[in-house]
Amino acid sequence: MRRALIGASALLFSTPAMAASGEAVNPWVATAYLVAGVLFILALRGLSSPETSRAGNRYGMVGMLIAVVTTLLTHSIASLPEIGVAILIGGSIGFIMARKIAMTDMPQLVAGFHSLVGMAAVLVGIAAYLNPGAFGILDAAGEILVVSRVELGLGVAIGAITFSGSVIAFLKLNGNMSGAPIMLPGRHVLNLGVLVAIIGLTAYFAIAPTVGTGPIFWTIVGLSFAIGFLLIIPIGGADMPVVVSMLNSYSGWAAAAMGFTLGNTAMIITGALVGSSGAILSYIMCKAMNRSFISVIAGGFGAESGPSDGAERIDRPYKRGSAEDAAYMMKQAESVIIIPGYGMAVAQAQHALREMGDMLKEEGVSVKYAIHPVAGRMPGHMNVLLAEANVPYDEVFELEDINSEFAQADVAFIIGANDVVNPAAKTDKTSPIYGMPVFDVEKAKTVFFIKRSMGGVGYAGVDNEVFYMDQTMMLLSDAKKMCEEIVKAL
Amino acid sequence: MDFISILSIFVMACFVGYYVVWSVTPALHTPLMAVTNAISSVIIVGALIAAAAGSQADGGQTAKWLGLVGVVLASVNIFGGFAVTERMLAMYKKKERK
């Protein structure tokens, strides 16, 4: 790596590195930002395995420190005390939030953090527009460079969309706002119109003379806040993993756009990393639901749970089990596969569940956890909750790694999941979840299904054949209470 | 730097991001989102420039205050993002071998 850095700095020395305004850039400063960017790459690289992940996180911190210190050292600082206070205020708020947040509330926290990145990007964009000289984006005639205007327009637009979209996502995830999709009439036409207007105005902003661009610039900002809001309100709770990933991606592109304006490699590299990261996560989530990205963004999923099939459902016979039944059957079993879902997070049942798993292991039962990519409200949500409850990560398996094992499993124990075990996804072409990869729980000898009541259905609003199978026992109770009762019975 | 060099860095970084992120284990996708959130707060660089410049030009004073607010927001993210990632990663443990 050292050799690569020397090579890179040599490159910067040999090409006359010039700021857009024509002011010479110190090659060491450029190198420092490059090092910060490389450290950010290593931070993500560390996450390829839990063993290297903590070192990766430290690389990220060092990278951030280098970027901040370099910026402070190379600019004539007229207001160091104010900046210090600002960092202190923000830093303490962030640190306390990170300490206090419950792991079940991670999706909200991440959505909230995305909104801050978006807002920061908007503020930086506005500041650059108001004081372009400080950002070195003026041409000889004292006008803002055309290319910088495009970057500024795009930067504030993406930042504003990230902000308002994340605020809505936060409110929905936090329960301040109903998770149900809110459908405005003619929303597709409206959204498309606003998007076209933003792009058109950005183009006009780029070519218009600087004097008098104010109204155009502010309209771009205002419309972008509006479109972020309009885009997210029609999207239902079950699609939130995609939305959170998508906003993650946007916050990256916003940082990259500002990086272009400042010619700052650390910002550009980071923006590209975060942008692709969010995009890949959105893709993985869409694929795990067998939905196209467009259909998620178009929204409205989960709205059409008709009451008609509710009547039909009540009539069908099912077997109800007790905690004692479950305890007895699982003690006799050789292998148990546990499938947690969002319901486990809501009931905060992860600790009780782990206790149950531990007791079974003491009885010599093989216990494995199976996690669907879209379980929970954000990618990897269930993994974090199980890790919090001290479940070793090598007992936790992904869908494709464990699905073949259900045929040999004695018990499939479903806690707070529903759509991800629904065989209709494989058989019923008319089902809204058709084509979604699901766990083959129907192949297990016995299925225990913890559910609050027979009334509710999953977020897709479809009935589940698993409820009525011969080998299924419904455990109708709160997930946490049920696990505790099973533990007692063991 | 001229636009083309910046664009080249950007395009290369997108490819690096693509390959690095695909190699992240799905179990760590939540920490991935938390840490990408923390590093995207590198936007603080822009906020610092605005805050540092002060009132040398028209609009500089407003820009300075906007920059300072930007510094506060980005700091929440930097400290919060790295701290929560650290907290999550500390929970991932391997099975104790007997």
TrEMBL record, chain B:
Enzyme class: translocase
UniProt-listed Pfam families: PNTB_4TM (PF12769)
Subcellular location per the Swiss-Prot or TrEMBL entry: Cell inner membrane
Statement: the UniProt record of this protein carries the keyword Mitochondrion: no
Domain NAD(P) transhydrogenase alpha subunit C-terminal: 7-94
Reactions accelerated catalytically: NAD(+) + NADPH + H(+)(in) = NADH + NADP(+) + H(+)(out)
Topology relative to the membrane: Multi-pass membrane protein
Keyword vocabulary terms for this entry: Cell inner membrane, Cell membrane, Membrane, NAD, NADP, Translocase, Transmembrane, Transmembrane helix
Transmembrane annotation, as ranges: 6-25, 32-53, 65-85
EC number(s) given by UniProt: 7.1.1.1
Coiled coil ranges: none
Source organism superkingdom: Bacteria
Protein purpose: The transhydrogenation between NADH and NADP is coupled to respiration and ATP hydrolysis and functions as a proton pump across the membrane.
Protein name: proton-translocating NAD(P)(+) transhydrogenase
